[in-house]
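Onboarding guide, step 5: your first structure request.
Type a short instruction followed by the sequence, for example:

Predict the 3D structure of this protein.
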Amino acid sequence: MTGVQTCALPIFTGVSRKFEEDGVTASRMRVVASFAGFLPIDNPQLLCMIVVDEPAVPVMEASGVAAPWVNAVLTDLVQYYGILPDETTNTTTVPDLANLTGEEAIYELAKAGFTTNLVDSEKTAVVVSQYPAAGTQAASGSLVLIFTSMTTFNDEGVYKELVAVPSLVERRRQDAFDKLAALGLVLSFDKTQCTGQILTQSIPEGELVPPGTTVYVTFPTPTPRPEEESTTPPPEN
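The system replies with structure tokens like these:
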């Protein structure tokens, strides 16, 4: 069965960051990831580009999020159109990287003639999954995506990079807004009572929360102005 893993596949990949709600702060989690490939190399006939809006993975791995989808689409298309593998393309069996450290995985891939997306900070982490899977035939020199134990997800499978909530008590509204925006957090308050310095905040100082979390604050109740004494002279008898 013909598939793109046995074809040389030129690729283009990229990650663009979105802005937070303030329109100024670049988000550390909200990104747009894209992956494109075409084949055959010498006589391009198929082109596929997949764009994923806000993938639920770390930024460092976002560029590879769409890769499996591009592979799936092109694999079906090369079979449908009867496009044969490039005659000059050599294939190699993808090694099993499970439970290796990142550094060991890089060595094994290099020995087999593959490249990887792993960054230096993950070299001591343990590999938990890979794409293509171990034992798969893939084009020599192609990219093997690695996911390690440093990739953490919350209960819904969404990447969670937590930030500490700062103290907002006794701050002015704009000061609190700027402080939270810098961390990717959102300020909320009663717009009918928002003057003076902040009295309380809904999330305690130091608590770790994901970016995008809303912190509700309260302000003191305005003191009513005393009624001015009437200066109207008493009526004449």
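Each response can be followed by summary notes, for example: Residues 56 and 156 are 9 Å apart (CA to CA).
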